[in-house]
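Morning!

This is the sequence you dropped in the shared folder:
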Amino acid sequence: MSRAELSGGSPVERFGERYGPPPTLDPTTLGILRFALSAVVLLPLAVFLSVCARLSAADRARRLAALRLLGLSKKGTQRVNAAETVAAAGLGAILGLGEYWAVNQLASRVGLPGFTWYPADGALTFQTLVVCLVGCPALAWYVGRASAGNAAANPLAVRRGAVEKPPSKWVFLPLITGLGVITGYCVAGAAGHAPTSTAVSSLLMPLAIILAGVGLALSLPSLSRFLAQRMARSTRSLSLGLAMRRNEAEPGGAIRVATGLVLLVFAASLAQGVVIELNGVAKSVLAVQTYEISYGELSGPQRRAVEAVPGLRAHVVTLRSDSADAGAAPSPEAVVATCGQLREAVPWVKGCVDGRPMRLWDATQPEESAKAGGSVVFRLKVGQHARDLKLTVPQQTIRYRDHEGIHVLPSGAILVPPAALPPNARPESATLTLVSGPSEKTVRTVLDGIGGIAPMAGVTTPGLIVDSFQRVTIVRTLLAVGMILGLIIGVAAYLVAATDRAVERRPQVTALALLGARARTLRAVQVVQVVLPLAVGLVLAVVVGKMAESSYLVTGGGAVFWDGGGVPLLLACALGVLVVAAVGALPLVGRRIDPELIRRD
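The structure's back. Tokens below.
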């Protein structure tokens, strides 16, 4: 644009001052987003890392125990394990940083829905490089030495046939503690006594949700063992009996496969709560949405184009009086519109006659009008010349009812037919008021349309913070990215655990096949072993997740506490997870029996 077209622009005089627009996400929204992404991404990631650690620990522990039995010292065994772990962690950190750099370069140029950034905005900082390149290997050294302690101290205890210890009852403590706090907030919200102490709630609520999620994962083995004991005693089915006895003897085996998927459903419910809360902030509670633009900022073609923007219901022009007679105080405003435009702008109009000046009257609004018969002067601009429009306050009135919560028309104003104005007249002190529906999609359409026609015009949206739309869009996009990452991590954890479990179970499956069990029976046993504890975990995930979501909404201060609309989606996700787990739990059972699988054990 040229300098003449930038009516509201100002030249740059110097550099060096710290000035810029406010941040796109305020600290409160940023804190909510960090918490949600931590639950959506870090919980499945913790399960994935624990599954991978246990998978590698099984083979590594036997190898370290063999080195210990061959004469290597206890500290030497720990150093060997720590050095291997540090090498893997260092290589992984370098690969991860390189992959992030490549993804940032590509994604910043492509962008995400409603969210764009420059490559430099996502560049790796010095602190990040130090944490990844130094902190990760240091942590790996500590974990490597600690994880090799059992194999170095008692190498005979890591044999493959060692009996798994029963789960401790203390694993229920995090779940009970988190559920206690969550239930308290739910009860307070249902009783109409939502807590107002934001300082306590902002600390206590995230802690309770984290405890509930961690407790959900820790308590699944004990619940699976308890359920397996009860069902194994009462069932007469061979497949179900074998499956339950195996889960009773090794409750952690099937749970390793199910935990990642259970926590993914739990985190999805929390993500729903965050989106609901932010939608409540951005959602308009008004019946309509108005847009006010200074009449002088629009040319004739721009004004006609703006009035035809898709999504608009009506438009009126409001004139402010420049002068009045001595006895006419205060001076009323004037509304330039037809009766049809009035009926489109407000819900109810009675007594309007086209082509005749009349007074607008709404009994619900305070009226500041001049005495009937007085005169009011409005200044117009016709071409390059100024001209005054003198109106007499009419006796006839138009009764109307404006929208609740927002006033489109000023009560006591004079309705002026558009034909009463001179041709090509432009009021100097006037406001163009546009009216549309309150939905987010409609408001975005109207604002985009106005911006495309008159990019330099200032638009005021009474009762609406336009920046909240941008915040909600960014949060939705990042939560969607987090859910996709969580889904990928959860599926990866499931695949790793399912593969590990299939390899572990092959000798036992071969033994059962030698005893005469059919392949169909063995497949049914494998499916039941995984699906039954997973179903229990998913039911708990949906219940605990919805309670956590409700308690989060209670502490958020919004109007929505209970999200019944999200339950069908969660149940559908849980059913899909069961189907995927049932298909993935099918063992590699063939007709050929390999005795080497038994001899190797």
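Headline: The CA atoms of residues 160 and 330 lie 94 Å apart.

More detail when I'm at my desk.
O.
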